[in-house]
Amino acid sequence: MEEEDVLRLALSGSACVGKTTLAACLAERLALTIIPEKFDEGISRRKDKTVKDKAQELIVLFNEKSALESAASRFVSDRSSLDLLHTWMEHKLHKSVDEKLTTHFVNACLNRLKRYDYHIFLPWGVLPLVQVDEDRKGKGVVRNMNKFSQLKHQAYLLGLAHLAINKRRIIEVPRALTELDDRTDYVVEQITVRQKHFKNLSQGAANVAQSSEGSS
Fold first, then answer.
1. I want to staple 83 with a disulfide (CB 3.0 to 4.6 A). Which of 44, 78, 79, 100 is the partner?
2. If you ran DSSP here, which 8-state letter would residue 97 be given?
3. Under the phi-then-psi rule, with left for phi > 0, alpha for psi from -120 to 50, and beta for the rest, what region is 13?
4. pLDDT number for residue 52
């Protein structure tokens, strides 16, 4: 498989910023497999869940999404291991479960981030925050409608991203871009420019290496 055939994207961010919609457009534009969010079916809303149950659900969800991503060479993942790591911390599981388990989960999530070529973030507070549809409500899913709570999630995710991901791999869509086509065009353009830059860097390094071999 040619290296240029591989393209692994991930979308992260707070609720209702347009991740799923953008993922569908990028998948169509770039011929990518969509890796679904899976949070609704993977995280139950049972009131009697124990801390161990919560941790196990996130571990299973991590494994399921990782398997789907590993099976595809070109994909766009709606939410990533970054979101799972945030959820673990948001539920304060690091205070309740065995430290070794948290360490293992954190390391697994961070290592998974290395597999994405680009991590895409849409801006908070640009699109209206709306409740989930009736079908999702029927499954017990309810969106937190406090915009400042969502701002906290966005800030946490971006903070983790800038701590764990090379900034050249992070694409932040400008707040001024509210239309789907404009957002899609921006992300595709950023990927094209950066891929070309990385290719030139690799070619330059190869030329230097060949030159060094020739003069030795």
1. 79
2. S
3. left
4. 93
In angstroms, the CA 198 to CA 13 distance is 26
DSSP lists the bridge partners of residue 9 as 76, 118
Q: Which of 41, 68, 42, 67 is nearest to 55 (CA)?
A: 42
- Sorted by sequence, the CB contacts under 8 Å of residue 75 that are 6+ apart come out as 7, 8, 9, 32, 33, 34, 35, 68, 69
Question: pTM score > 0.85 for this model?
Answer: yes
**Confidence (pLDDT) at 1:** 34
Are 82 and 119 in contact, with CB atoms under 8 Å apart?
Answer: yes
* Terminal Cα-to-Cα distance of the chain (whole angstroms): 33
Distances (CA, A) of 35 to 120, 184, 191: 14, 17, 19
The two structure tokens encoding residue 204 = 């330059």
**Superfamily of the domain at 3-215:** P-loop containing nucleotide triphosphate hydrolases (3.40.50.300)
Cβ-Cβ contacts under 8 Å for 45 (sequence gap 6 or more): 139, 140, 141
Domain ranges of the chain: 3-215
Which amino acid, residue 150? Answer: Q
CA distance 10 to 19: 9
Average pLDDT over all residues of the chain? 90
